[in-house]
Amino acid sequence: MLGMTAFRTESFKYLVFPGKKMADQAADIEMAMGPPPAPPKRGGLFGGGLKLELGGKKPEAGTPAAEFQSMGQEVNNVSRRLRLLEDRTQNLRQKVQLTDQNMLDNQRKLLTEIKTNADDIAEMKHQIQEVENKIVMLIKELRMCANKEDVDIMSKYLEFWQPQTFVTREQVEKIIQEMLHNYTQ
Asked: What whole-number distance in Å separates Cα of residue 29 and Cα of residue 37?
């Protein structure tokens, strides 16, 4: 960290910014971090927490020991808040990772559905093309067929010619045979 020096007293490590007093540093930290959250209430065996004071009495306000003690409390508050923020950050990272994973899974599903739909559409286009080809072939064959006018003309000719009175070749040969047989006799 640039512009900071560190020193250690008893069990606490303090950061010191060059050119600033300890009280100013505490105020800067307080403004940067906002008010500390209320410490959790801990119930002990008889409703209170275990309080252990070593040394008998609390240091007087304004003495270096009191400043170190208040600074230690502030550092503890800051480190507790930092842990809370780190936990929140970790939870947010996990949520983001889960959301990303879900998005990737959904994207894969959508891509497979899109591919399936595209294949279905291509197959339908092919079937439609086959149906169009068959319709065109039917139209060509229908054009080659006789229309109503042609059928009417043919029926008039048939009535005029009366083909039912026509004689087949076999009938003609039979008639000739009979006539020849009658003539020779």
From this structure: 14
